[in-house]
Amino acid sequence: CSRPQKVCLCPFLPVHPLKVSTCLYIIQHPAEEGRVLRTVPLLAACLPPDKCKILVGRRFNEDRYPELATVCRNPNTLILYPGAEATNLEEIAVMSSSPSVMIIIDGTWSQAKDMFYKNSLFRLPKQVQLKPSISSQYVIRTQPTNTCLSTLECAAVALSILEKNKSIQETILHPLQALCSFQLQHGAQIHHSKEHLLKNGLYDKPMPKNKRKLRRMELLVNNVKI
């Protein structure tokens, strides 16, 4: 896990990489590389190297990333990004039995949105989303809403659905739970979602002057999907 011995997470990782047929491509925003508490390294430690490939950058085109372009054109490739055009992943998993490739964008929500819409390659795969049925266990980082998940959590849920194996989700989430526990024991505070803070009058930062950002916060308070 590359962490200090005092907070080592290796005992919480699977002894052997999980056997999965699905291959993940994690498209990581460069800003995520410098985050101390990022979750992608834990995800990679749970999976075989050939089943979790990480590409770092903001812009991806066919000339610089021919392998990714080929992956995006594969009919079995899915991209996990919620929206009006996205199909629930459970429906796809029921209809398909062939091994899949899944692309997941790793970054803040604004970074992920920018990367998704400014890279035409990412519009080629079938767009899928997860049902908002679980709350994030990544409590040491603030999420926009109660049902927003970290990259590791998204991958854990998606793999358990595609592989039809619930234990995969439990195994991958185990080191995340340990990470949060360690951080809370060493002074970290539980971070409620921005949605929770706004609804309960606990948001202590100045309200944005930008009308677009202010409108987004109003939608969060009123339970409108954004």
Residue share in β-strands: 5-15%
Taken from the alpha-carbon principal axes, the silhouette is: globular
Number of helical segments? 8
Largest sheet: 6 strands, parallel
CATH class bucket of the largest domain: Alpha Beta
EC number: 2.5.1.25
Enzyme class: transferase
Catalytic activity: a uridine in tRNA + S-adenosyl-L-methionine = a 3-[(3S)-3-amino-3-carboxypropyl]uridine in tRNA + S-methyl-5'-thioadenosine + H(+)
InterPro entries: DTW, DTWD2/TAPT
Brief synopsis:
One of its GO terms (biological process) is tRNA processing. The chain has helices at 40-46, 66-73, 89-95, 109-117, 151-162, 166-185, 194-199, 211-221, and strands spanning 23-28, 52-56, 77-80, 87-88, 101-106, 126-129.
Plain-language structure description:
By secondary structure, the chain is of the alpha/beta class. The protein has a six-stranded parallel sheet, with helices on both faces.
Question: Which terms would index this structure?
Answer:
226 residues, alpha/beta, 2 domains, six-stranded parallel sheet, 8 helices, tRNA-uridine aminocarboxypropyltransferase, transferase, S-adenosyl-L-methionine, DTW, EC 2.5.1.25
Topology:
Blueprint: E1 23-28, H1 40-46, E2 52-56, H2 66-73, E3 77-80, E4 87-88, H3 89-95, E5 101-106, H4 109-117, E6 126-129, H5 151-162, H6 166-185, H7 194-199, H8 211-221
Parallel strand pairs: 1-2, 1-5, 3-5, 3-6, 4-6
Helix pairs in contact: 5-6
